[in-house]
Amino acid sequence: MTRIRLQFVHEFRDRHGKTRRYFRRPGFKQIPLPGLPGSAEFMDAYQAAVAGVTAPRIVIGSARTLDGTVNAIVAAYLDCSPTSCSPFKILATEAKRTRRNILENFRTLHGEKRVFRTEANGRRAMLLTREHMQKIVNEKSNTPFAQRNFLNTLHAMFKWAKAVGDVPDDPTIGVTRVKITSTGYKTWSEAHIGQFEARYPIGTKARLAFALLLYTGQRRGDVVKMGRQHVYKGVLTIDQGKTFGQDEAHLEIPMHPKLSEIIDATPSGHLNFLVTSFGKPYTAPGFGNWFRELCDEAGCTDVSAHGLRKATARRLAEIGCSTHEIAAITGHASLGEVERYTKAANRKRLAHSAMAKLIESGS
Between the CA atoms of 175, 181, 182 and 187, what dihedral angle is there, to the nearest 10 degrees? Predict the structure, then answer.
């Protein structure tokens, strides 16, 4: 018999001396393969197993998870296996962590509840209604930001579940939350910038971290990944983590001369521009905590790393850059926040112009 080398095919002799063959792939159910290798019967069964038709992936805890429950939908959404179509698996690491925590807490409270029922005519009717979701959101009254993150996460999951046919409707549509009145992280002023630069001279790691934030306008999670391998012919190329997979994710930012000067003046023997005292790349939260301490030592206690991203947008707006020009640097997926900077800058320029005219008129 000609032996054919096939992946995941195992054979052994049973106690009667007969050779038996099985498709055995890590993480998938084992199934027997009929016939001889190379025969039509064998190859049809093998191809079906490879495609996952007859040898589906083993889902941990599936025996304890009932179809149509919150548990089942959350488990499917959090599935990061190669065969999963869930958008969760392409999120940035920090976004995954945040969403996973929210969803795990959600199914701890509601996991056994059924999301929908199937009626006699085959039509599926939602049991988890918008009214139920509104009550759940209302109960999350600790902060408006917690409500926003919770609702955004649940909406992303149910939108996907509806698209793939796991649920008949998205119960988060139309659900309201407490409006966020805060403007979020405070934007660095020029006074803040000057104060930080005075405390940390060029050549220090603190000044390099500051310059990377200020002259690229990127989030801390993207700044910690930057290295010389991302710079070619004076252009910094980066794929943003938060908007991974979107058009806005890929950015090509010309290097500011001051940033190039600071990079060249700062000793570094590592692939990443910024590493910990142990020579390892920073995590986004770890970098944020370290930079928080730097700000406090510089007397900039009311601003943080993310505020420098806002300062970049503010500076660009104040020199007359359009909304789309600013977004081409910062990579904002939504232009709403960028537009606030351009409007504020326009008001500032118009105020100066109006006052100059008033003075010239002698009024």
Answer: 110
In this structure, the number of other CB atoms found within 10 A of the CB of residue 316 comes to 23
- What is the residue-wise DSSP string for 239-307? E-STTTTSGGGEEEEEPPHHHHHHHHHS---SSBS-B-TTS-BPPHHHHHHHHHHHHHHTT-TT--HHH
Residue 219 to residue 76: CA distance in whole angstroms: 29
Classify domain 190-351 by CATH number: 1.10.443.10
Token pair, residue 131, equals 């009214």
Of 16-25, 127-136, 339-348, where does the model show the most confidence?
A: 127-136
Q: Round the CA-based radius of gyration of the chain to a whole number and report it.
A: 28
Q: What does the pLDDT average to over 110-127?
A: 88
Domain spans of the chain, in order of start = 9-50, 62-163, 190-351
Distance CA 113, CA 133 (A): 13
Per residue in 121-179, pLDDT (tens digit) is 888 889 999 999 999 888 876 677 788 889 999 999 999 999 999 999 999 999 988 77
207's CB contacts (< 8 A; 6+ apart) are: 197, 200, 201, 262, 266
pLDDT in tens, 27-83: 667 788 888 888 888 888 888 877 766 655 555 444 456 778 999 999 999 988 888
- Dist. CA 183–CA 151, nearest whole Å: 19
- Beta strand pairing call for 250-254 and 116-118: unpaired
Task: Note the maximum CA span of the chain.
Answer: 112
Residue 24 burial by Cβ neighbours in a 10 Å radius (0-12, 13-18, 19+) = middle
Listed in sequence order, the residues at least 6 apart from 24 whose beta carbon sits closer than 8 Å to its beta carbon are 8, 9, 10, 30
d(CA 113, CA 70): 6
DSSP 90-139: GS-HHHHHHHHHHHHHHHHHHTTSBSEEE-TTS-EEESS-HHHHHHHHHH
